């Protein structure tokens, strides 16, 4: 027995809807029949949905690629026109059979579709003819090197030499740690130092001074930037220079026994040599006495003997310097050598 819905009872009671009763009853019975059919049948569970009928696939349009440029490139072509500036590697423009990479079971990959060749920087724009063209273009802006400014004048007017390094490589980080290092070189003779200041400066710098070349080398790498290390190197040179000029109160109280090295001019040997060479006269002003070449050689020989230690070389040098200083003959006569 079909049951009428509640809203149908309301419709049947209204007089103005009684004329449309046959149509209403037909629609009601169709809805009741549909609802009873839905309650009798179970809903089908579709585990795999049936795909709808596919439409015809569009055919891909094949794009015809042009042949590589290297196939039609003449042998005598101007390479600077092909590769005028820095750019990533392009296999169709480089007429070279390049290979890059590693293949375990075969040869290295070729240049086409090779990411290894594209990653690394290339210098194909810096060929000798291209560099020559750049130089010719810049020549009109350059002046000739002054002939009077030779190496000696450069060392005289520009005694400080600064050495830095720049690096170019492929990396996610553009900053190279080694690029921050600054090396400052200066000749010690270019600095106006007296005897006390030079001795104190050499003690402060330690092994940074090379006596064979008379060059003082300062290397700075503490700061993260190159400019900071450059300024720090100049600060070190300035601080060393002014610190060496200072004379502490305790330095005047030092005696010969307190000296860290053998100073011939402050030793008794210096006064004995002056007294022997100027006998029977006496030398009063020993500080401003001008040394002869023989005395300079003797000074160097005895200083090396006392500071570096005794060996065959220092002893032989001391022997030769003593003979020249006292004007002794090279070989003594036979009567002086026999007993």
TrEMBL record:
Residues 176-247 form the Small ribosomal subunit protein mS35 mitochondrial conserved domain. Pfam families: MRP-S28 (PF10213). It comes from the Eukaryota. GO terms for molecular function: structural constituent of ribosome. GO terms for biological process: mitochondrial translation. One of its GO terms (cellular component) is mitochondrial small ribosomal subunit. PANTHER family: MITOCHONDRIAL 28S RIBOSOMAL PROTEIN S28, SMALL RIBOSOMAL SUBUNIT PROTEIN MS35. This is Small ribosomal subunit protein mS35 mitochondrial conserved domain-containing protein.
